[in-house]
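Troubleshooting log. The previous structure file for this entry was overwritten by mistake, so regenerating from the original sequence record. Sequence copied from the archived sheet and checked twice against the printout by T.R.
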Amino acid sequence: VNRRMLRDPHYLTPMEYKIYKTGRVPPEVMPDLYAACDVVLNASVVDNQPLSLLEAFASGLPVVTTPAGDITGMVRHGETGLLVPHADPAAMAAAVATSPTRAPST
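Regenerated output below.
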């Protein structure tokens, strides 16, 4: 698995700018996918504690998410991520524009 695979249309379909719709991604590709990301968005309306947010944290990625389910137990606004209202794409876009950068590698 390498970054070249992430550019393969079977894995990623470009939508607009640098936003990609991935569809199903094999688990062994996830580390490379997270390494290629700048921010993780989660626009869930119903979710409890999504594994994708834990993976984003472990990868050092900034997170922008809605406060669905117990996400507020995982994300402290302005500290471990940014929380935006449900069904508010303008707020999500604004949060992405101001989101922090990836955490430094250790």
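The beta strands are 13-16, 19-21, 40-42, 63-65, 82-83. Archived copy saved in two places this time.
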